[in-house]
Write a structure and sequence with these properties.
Elements (H helix, E strand, L loop, with lengths): L1 H13 L3 H24 L2 H26 L17 H11 L4 H9 L2 H8 L3 H32 L3 H20 L1 H17 L4 H8 L5 H10 L3 H26 L15 H6 L9 H15 L1 H23 L9 H12 L3 H4 L5 H5 L3 H34 L5 H25 L20 H14 L1 H12 L8 H40 L12 H23 L2
Helix pairs in contact: 1-4, 2-5, 3-7, 3-9, 4-12, 6-7, 6-11, 7-8, 7-11, 7-12, 8-15, 11-12, 14-15, 14-19, 15-16, 15-19, 16-19, 16-20, 16-21, 19-20, 19-23, 20-21, 20-22, 20-23, 22-23
């Protein structure tokens, strides 16, 4: 059975998208080259620290890479739930299949750097000890990766799991946006690291006690003739590997049973929103209440909010680390920018629930649905953005930046809410049904639509951003009425974008409601073209990209 599952994985991998596989191979080979280069260039006194840091990088990559890419496994346990197969043997086969792929191959090429470390130490015994150390480290990486991936999927039903996923996504987005601020200092420190190792003994000691440091210490102990120490470190590594493999196999065992628990009381959000008079008793009030409850209850929507907040916090942290605290006041702007990205597929996140609007189609109902979703976005993203910027302004002492920052927030939130509902209608993309979601990225997403949403939100808020930049830099030629004009521009900018793009979404949904529902219920169904309008053209392009993404996922087995 194990061999059959491995061959099945190979077959699926061969039919995975060639571009994605090519990029994976290129990046993997680059990482392997960097690993061996670090080993060969490091001086003898620094080699241990350098190799430990490199192995920590591989270990962390296995932890977060599959989660962020939603690609920890080609074969999922639920695919085999109804087959008459021994559950434990099936789990072992699924675990073995996790080694098949670019990640397992490049790690298998990088882990022997431990053997190189033993050879360069001049001890044959150290090289022999490095061989099982490298093998155990490879198995440990894969086992921990599969365990964390499965646990996070289960934890996405809890607040703790959502928070963990949000921290990872927030860190990733912040690193992609402003990580360049600390790249230069890190690169400048590489030559010194290769020559001297880590500064101080405390940091080196702490890192050597991590799982990535155990095989290095085993090799060093063997090189020093300490056989008992080498055996102890290898035994610790083997024990941790056995525990990780056992956990991975247990989590890969197909589960049949009840996955839900019965609530004993109504959620907090429901108890708050159920208070009389809090929301108007109209169609708009009903949609706003539904949206507020959805953003509060749905783990995947909650993930979007928490990701935006962590993105803002990491943005501020990068600013402090780089010695540019002024960037910290833009933490709220990062949250505001996420409005358009997080809400770019609201209808797709709801699954096929759009049928309720189809059977009750009425201009007033459609208008209330669109406007209610916009107000829900503003409520859940606007408040954290304002609070985060206010806190950072106080901490950095940048009180003179308060007016331009808050003006930019108003424009970005207003424009983002309008862009979000328009993209949700034009680029609606089906994802995994809410009750079948496993990973944090299982909700539908369309990279084409997300890119357009990000650039469109920034472009629409540009008038306010330009005025805010002038106000923040305070050139001497600004007239006294310019601060008031900036506020007026921000409010006008937000209102026009909110109302105008919302009106376009209402019109498109009114004219194309059955087709929009069909794109959710029957992905890939050809849309009838009834006019040459740019909205229809964009919707067609978005659907084309969504079909390509769905086909790529189907080919790769995800």
């Amino acid at each position: 059975m194990v061999g059959q599952l491995i061959r099945l994985t190979f077959t699926i991998r061969r039919h995975s998208p060639s571009l994605r596989r090519t990029w994976g191979i290129v990046l993997g080979i680059a990482a392997v080259a960097a690993t061996w280069a670090a080993l060969l260039l490091a001086r003898p006194g620094a080699r241990s620290d350098v190799l430990t840091l490199v192995l920590i990088g591989w270990f962390v990559g296995w932890l977060v890479g599959p989660v962020l890419a939603s690609g920890a496994a080609v074969l999922r346990p639920e695919y085999f739930t109804l087959l008459p197969l021994p559950r434990r043997r099936l789990a072992v086969g699924l675990f073995a299949s996790a080694f098949v792929g670019v990640g397992g191959a490049v790690t298998a090429l990088a882990a022997p750097a431990l053997i190189g470390h033993g050879v360069r130490s001049g001890s044959a015994l150290a090289a022999l000890v490095a061989l099982p150390g490298a093998l155990l480290f490879l198995v440990l990486c894969v086992a921990v990766s599969r365990t964390v991936y499965a646990l996070l999927g289960a934890a996405m039903r809890t607040h703790v799991g959502v928070e963990i996923a949000a921290v990872q996504y927030g860190l990733l987005i912040a690193t992609l946006m402003v990580g360049w601020l600390i790249v230069s200092p890190v690169l400048n420190a590489v030559p010194r690291l290769l020559d001297e190792g880590l500064p101080g003994t405390a940091m080196s000691t702490v890192l050597s006690w991590t799982p990535a440091g155990w095989p290095v210490r085993a090799v060093e102990a063997a090189g020093a003739g300490d056989l008992a120490g080498a055996a102890a470190w290898l035994g610790l590594l083997a024990g941790a590997t056995a525990l990780a493999v056992g956990a991975a196999v247990a989590l890969l065992t197909p589960y049949v049973g009840n996955r839900t628990t019965r609530r004993r009381r109504a959620p907090l959000g429901t108890r708050v929103l159920a208070r009389p008079g809090l929301l108007p008793g109209s169609e708009l009030g009903a949609v706003v209440g539904k949206e507020l409850r959805s953003w509060w209850r749905d783990p995947w929507r909650s993930l979007e909010i928490r990701t935006s907040i962590w993105f803002g916090l990491f943005l501020a942290g990068y600013g402090f680390i780089a010695g540019v605290p002024q960037i910290a006041v833009l933490a709220g702007a990062g949250v505001a920018l996420m409005v358009a990205l997080s809400g770019a597929n609201l209808y797709g996140q709801d699954g096929t629930a759009l049928w309720q609007l189809v059977v009750a189609q009425h201009p007033r109902a459609i208008r209330a649905d669109v406007r209610g979703r916009q107000l829900g976005l503003i409520a859940y993203f606007g408040l954290p953005a304002v609070l985060l910027s206010g806190v950072m302004i106080i901490l950095t002492g940048g009180h003179h930046l308060a007016l331009p920052v808050f003006a930019g927030l108003v424009a970005l939130i207003g424009a983002g809410s309008g862009v979000a509902v328009l993209m949700s209608v034009l680029g609606v993309t089906p994802g995994v049904d809410p009750h079948r979601r496993v990973n944090a990225t299982d909700a539908g997403e369309n990279p084409f639509v997300i890119q357009v949403a990000m650039w469109l939100a920034g472009t629409l808020a540009a008038p306010t951003v330009v005025a805010a930049v002038f106000l923040a830099t305070e050139p001497g030629w600004l007239p006294g009425w310019f601060p008031a004009a900036t506020v007026a521009i921000a409010v006008l900018n937000a209102v026009v974008a909110f109302w105008g793009l919302g009106a376009l979404a209402v019109r498109q949904l009114t004219n194309r409601l059955p087709e929009t529902f069909a794109r959710l219920r029957y992905p890939g169904l050809a849309r009838p073209r009834t006019g040459p309008g740019w909205l229809d053209w964009f919707a067609g392009q978005a659907e084309t990209e969504a079909v390509k993404a769905a086909a790529a996922k189907a080919k790769s087995g995800r």
